[in-house]
Specification:
A hairpin with a 5-residue loop joins β2 and β3. The protein has a domain of 37 residues. The chain is built from one helix and three strands. The chain is α+β, with helices and mostly antiparallel strands. This is IS1 family transposase.
Length: 53
Amino acid sequence: MECPACGSPHIRKNGIKAGKQNHLCVYCRRPFIIDYEAQRGYPDEVRAECLKL
């Protein structure tokens, strides 16, 4: 596992956020979550229908 910001392999656990393990980079102090979900949103069909309105 590496920090997404600086690429450092020195990572520590940093509690739980929104039911997922939060991590903290030792070097750049950036908090992050490893398992990001795809951004949720409306399907393309719904977006097209909204644009029609």
